[in-house]
Amino acid sequence: MLNLPGLSIEQTAETATQYDFTVKVISSPPPCCLDGVVLNGTKQTMFRDLPIHGRHVGIWVNRQRYKCRGCGKTLYQSVPHMHRKHEMTLRLVDYIERNSMDRTFSALAGELGLSEFTVRSIFRIFAKRELAKLEPVTPEWMGLDELYILSKFRGVVTNVKDRTLVEMLPNRNKVAVIRYLAGIEDREKIKLVAIDMWNPYREAVREVLPHARIVVDKFHVVRMANEALERIRKEHRVSLPMRGRLQLKDDRWMMLTNPDKLDAGRMWLLEAMLGQFPLLKAGYEAKERFRAVWRAENMPAAQEAYDKWESDLPEDVRPAFNDLTTAMRNWPPKSSLTLIRGSRTPIRSPSTPWRKW
Ligand SMILES: [Zn+2]
Question: Has this prediction a pTM greater than 0.70?
Answer without folding.
Answer: no
